[in-house]
Write a structure and sequence with these properties.
two-stranded antiparallel sheet; single chain; about 450 residues; mainly alpha; 2 strands
């Protein structure tokens, strides 16, 4: 419809849509009355994993058919980056693309964002995947407010749409045109980071930068918290330990970077705070928008941004990374261990949001962080072996796994990934999916026992 409105090619969208509907029709007829009544855990792992590859493959077709991204590898990279809400791009001049292609590019973020929320809040806890049950809704609340999965998804979608529409309105009030407002809202609420402008958010007004910063934080907040706020259950929302830890992390790192920007650069206090607040919000929530080139910041400020590549937003949000709840549980577990060394006869119980966390769940969280860092090291070595410099290799894998977008070195906030070899782009694409599938899903599938009956 948008291609028709702007008098642009319709085939790049009509053909993939036809292929999609045809595949759906054939599969529906093939499995009619044969579908299993229960979804087993193996099937859940396989379906969730294959869905990302299938979506990215079909999503790449508009780029290839329109010849705007003629390289299959580049089109695949851009599509994976979109659906996983990473925001890394191979495009060197974004603004010359047709409006319909730019809109599709941003729409992949928006689709991927709601998909991730449903995956983490509904599918993974239901299938008992990746220990997400401990971060999910309390069982009593789940039964009270949404007894059926379909109604859960509908309520989450309403919140998602409300946040998107709210940001569009506020951006319009800041004199941003409708097309750019919609594209930026899609990229913000999904914490994706694709912008229809070459300079991202750099050229926009301070008002727009603050609006985008706030909505990045909202996008990186657990959508269960949004549900409580929508129903005026503010006490439940602000008692959420992960939310408080998440907001404190953003506040303290913002003040830390602001201090060095004021001290070491000629920025005003307001400009220093705004740049720090925007970039911290962008990196912590794994959005990837840029309001300034942080590679030109003082060393301590740039180092803090690099560390934040491993932070991640809240569980049950559109953001990627390790996630704040895991960091919080790891810190609490470490604190309890230190206390037990001082008082060996005392009993310390690990809790999150007043719910006791079992030793098995606690160990799973620690193991996940270990696996995440191990995957980061392996991926960094792989890129370095392909001839990518060390800073770009390490930050590239970190930003791919975290779904962040820009990195350091030659892939900084004002650069792109176009110059990397094709093998490096394919590797980064796989690590984007690996990060989105929370590592364990892929590790389980790669094990020999997974394929045994």
């Amino acid at each position: 419809m948008l291609a028709f409105y702007y008098n642009e090619e319709i085939l790049p969208f009509a053909l993939p849509a036809a292929i999609n509907f045809l595949a759906h029709f054939i599969l529906q007829r093939k499995i009619r009355n044969k579908a299993p009544t229960q979804f087993k855990k193996k099937e859940a792992y396989l379906t969730v994993s294959l869905a990302w590859f299938l979506m990215a493959g079909i999503g790449a077709l508009p780029y290839i058919i329109s010849r705007e991204i003629p390289s299959n590898v580049d089109a695949w990279f851009e599509s994976v980056s979109g659906f996983t809400t990473t925001g890394s791009s191979i495009l060197t001049d974004i603004e010359i693309l047709p409006k319909s292609i730019l809109f599709w590019r941003s729409l992949t973020h928006w689709i991927g964002g709601i998909g991730i929320i449903l995956l983490v809040i509904i599918i993974m806890p239901g299938a008992k995947m990746n220990n997400y049950a401990i971060f999910s809704l309390e069982s009593s609340v789940r039964e009270k407010i949404h007894p059926r999965i379909r109604s859960v998804g509908f309520r989450l979608l309403i919140i998602y749409v409300l946040l998107t529409v709210g940001e569009i309105v506020l951006l319009l009030l800041g004199k941003m045109n409708l097309f750019e407002s919609v594209c930026h809202a899609f990229g913000t609420v999904s914490t994706g980071g694709f912008s229809p402008k070459n300079t991202s958010i750099i050229a926009y007004s301070p008002y727009i930068q603050y609006v985008v910063s706030i909505f990045m934080i909202l996008g990186g907040t657990n959508f269960i918290v949004h549900y409580y706020i929508l129903h005026r259950q503010f006490d439940k929302a602000f008692k959420n330990e992960e939310l408080r830890f998440y907001l404190k992390t953003i506040l303290f790192t913002t003040l830390f970077i602001t201090f060095f920007l004021v001290l070491k650069t000629d920025r005003t206090i307001e400009k220093s705070f705004r740049d720090a607040f925007f970039q911290v919000s962008s990196i912590v929530t794994c959005t990837g928008f840029a309001s300034d080139d942080y590679l030109l910041w003082p060393g301590a400020a740039s180092l803090m941004i690099f560390i934040l590549l491993f932070a991640g937003g809240s569980t049950g949000s559109t953001s990627g990374g390790i996630k704040m709840a895991r960091h919080l549980l790891a810190l609490k577990s470490t604190q309890n261990y230190i206390r037990s060394q001082i008082h060996p006869n005392a009993v310390y119980v690990l809790k999150l949001n007043n719910k006791t966390v079992s030793n098995a769940d606690s160990n799973a969280v620690i193991a996940y962080i270990y696996w995440y860092l191990l995957a980061f090291v392996i991926g960094s070595v792989m890129l370095a072996m392909m001839g990518v410099d060390l800073i770009s290799s390490t930050s590239g894998i970190a930003t791919a796994m975290g779904g962040i977008g820009p990195g350091f070195g030659t892939i900084g906030p004002v650069s792109n990934f176009a110059h990397l070899p094709d093998l490096a782009k394919l590797t980064l694409s796989l690590f984007m999916i690996l990060g989105r599938l929370e590592i364990y899903t892929v590790v389980v599938m790669l094990s020999a026992t997974f394929w045994k009956k």
